[in-house]
Amino acid sequence: CIINxxxxxxxxxxxxxxxxxxxxxxxxxxxxxxxxxxxxxRLLKGKAIVEASFSEMGDxxxxxxxxxxxxxxxxxxxxxxxxxxxxxxxxxxxxxGGEVVRF
Length: 103
Prior knowledge:
four-stranded antiparallel beta sheet, single chain, five-stranded antiparallel beta sheet, mainly beta
């Protein structure tokens, strides 16, 4: 499946936030700014998703085989926050207000 996230998100592992949407391009006292794409790849590449769910407000939660999880936060009453393209066709879209609609 393919997931497009257009809202805030975070990666949680070992009881702490490992990366969040707002971290991209931040220096945080490091030698180079955070590259969120590279960090996501480092944290999650090759790990299987073992559970996926939406909350009643349309927040997506993906749990990986090692216990790490990705959480999104639907943050608008008007804008779409997430689209999931399903294997074999169809989409799940989190529309404004957090409702999950299947197409």
